[in-house]
Amino acid sequence: MKKFIVLGLLLLFVTGCGCAKDTKTKTKDLEATMKEYASDFYEKNVKELVTGITEQEVTIATLKKLDYDTSVLKDPETGKLCSSDSYAIITIEDPSNLKDSDYTVKNYLTCGDYKTAK
User: Fold this and answer.
1) 9 vs 4: CA distance, rounded Å
2) How many angstroms separate the Cα of 80 from the Cα of each of 10, 21, 74, 77, 118?
3) Distances in whole angstroms, Cα of residue 94 to Cα of each of 23, 25, 44, 74
4) How far apart are alpha carbons 94 and 101 in whole angstroms?
5) Low-confidence ranges of the chain (pLDDT < 50)
6) Are residues 50 and 66 in contact, defined by beta-carbon separation less than 8 angstroms?
7) HEC readout, the chain
């Protein structure tokens, strides 16, 4: 029985358990979280309340003031938090119809050594 456990542990060590995320996956998660927060901010704070705009910027500082968990927005390698002036731009496709218009979110994050690719 011990042989099987040792063999299993050795196999797990050699092949990797797939438990740890690589940096590329972590940066995708970071970008996705910021986009999720920005979209949520737009849906709750802008979409129904503001008219006639084509873009809306939201910073990490604003999200923090609104009680979003900004502590998860950090450099995946160094763990340094993203700068509070990092932001997302929400672009509204049809400004004349904000309530039903689609929109896109583009991040501009600076987190330690990590920066959003241009």
Assistant:
1) 8
2) 34, 17, 5, 8, 20
3) 36, 33, 18, 33
4) 5
5) 3-4, 6-7, 9-20
6) no
7) CHHHHHHHHHHHHHHCCCCCCCHHHHHHHHHHHHHHHHHHHHHHHCCCCCCCCCEEEEEHHHHHHCCCCHHHCECCCCCCEECCCCEEEEEECCHHHCCCCCEEEEEECEECCEECCC
Separation in Å, CA 33 to CA 22, 26, 54, 68: 17, 10, 23, 11
What's the CA angle centered on 5, arms 2 and 9, to 5 degrees?
Answer: 140
**Alpha-carbon gap, residue 89 to 112, rounded angstroms:** 21
pLDDT tens digits along 54-74: 899 999 999 999 999 999 999
Choose among 69, 62, 67: nearest CA to 33.
Answer: 69
91: closest CA among 74, 112, 105, 110? 105
pLDDT at residue number 98: 65
